[in-house]
Amino acid sequence: MNDWYVINTKPHVEFKVISYLASKKIETFMPKFLITRRHARKVDKVFRPLFPSYLFVRGDINKNYRIINSTIGVKNILSSGERPSSVPNSIIDELNSITDDNGLVKYLD
CA angle, 101 as apex, 95 and 103 as ends, to 5°? Predict the structure, then answer.
């Protein structure tokens, strides 16, 4: 069962969660976009999640549930009742169609 699932994270920790799950060989996907940030006379470009506090993981949820749910920064896996809800592949395919290989959004309609 290698379906896609949605993880709800604490604010601003999406990249840390992705890094940790990658170290555990769990596939993740987070569409992101590039913004220009201005602060204290400094201008830089930073990545922001398209869906703040949410990211997608793919794998055997029964095998990886504990690893994912106990990761620092993860609030929970979106569920319907007791069972985690899988995301249809068509939605992930649609998101992939508007992103490049690194998950950076190319355009929004």
Answer: 50
CA distance 20 to 48: 18
For residue 100, what are the contacts with CB-CB under 8 A and spacing of at least 6? 106
Beta pairing class for 2-9 and 54-60:
antiparallel
pLDDT digit string (tens) for 30-69? 999 999 999 889 999 999 999 999 999 999 999 999 999 9
How far is 26 from 52, CA to CA, in rounded Å? 20
Q: What is the DSSP letter of 6?
A: E
**Measured between alpha carbons, how far is residue 57 from residues 25, 51, 87 in Å?**
11, 14, 10
From the list 60, 72, 64, 76, the residue with the least C-alpha distance to 15 is 72
